Amino acid sequence: MSISIKSPREIELMRISNHLLCDMHRELEKLVRPGISTMDLDDAAAKFLAHHGVVSNFLNYEGYPANICVSVNDEVVHGIPSRDRILKDGDIVSIDAGCIYKGYHSDAARTHIVGKASPEVQKLVDETRNAFFEAIKVARAGNHVYDISNAVADYISPFGYGIVRELVGHGVGTSLHEDPQIPNYHMERRGPKLQPGMTLAVEPMIALGRGDVVWEEDEWTVVTEDGSPAAHYENTILITDGDPEILSLY
Ligand code: MF3
Ligand code: CO
Question: Please, what are the domains in the chain?
Fold first, then answer.
């Protein structure tokens, strides 16, 4: 396994790619309300990307057929946008997206609540986001990749939520998925050492029930086996000499 260290020039391109993505997430969030379809979000993403002269890194990735992933309720990740999937009050909707700017990839996901969710579901969404911020406290040079994994697992375990194990965070740079893999579950070893210049997508995927998942017939959409709602929160971060820089938030 070899983890790429980005040069200052590459880091600047990663920053721009991720800032654009952050802006896009802000635009998409404004559209989330009962009555819109998940394809409306994809349409808006396509427009934003074209307007900024960048392309989606999800579109055509291993044959993926849309610009972004939109996953509703028990859909954990990789939901394919559809005109027939209409958001309704109380749904949770995860939007996962990325773009390529001058060859450099960004990757970030947010879970939004449509209207008002039950307190239980609201808490799931909040704690999934909190798990990300807790985990990146240990994302420092000298620590190791699986320290991030263990921090997510340690934060989430007391709530009794299910951690999705079949999908993991990852390095990101000139490809969407680079080494290393970053599980969200407890690891015995500490894994590779973190070094300044590494860019990583840290992405807890957490279910209200068990974390077991199955793939739907479209061969993309990942759903919880028990039908419980799941939340996803992801940012691309840069390992530095000090605190990590969250590239996809500014
Ligand atoms: N952000 C997603 C991930 O890290 C990428 C989805 S690729 C797609 O797994 F093809 F499904 F869009
Ligand atoms: Co990712």
Answer: 8-245 (3.90.230.10)
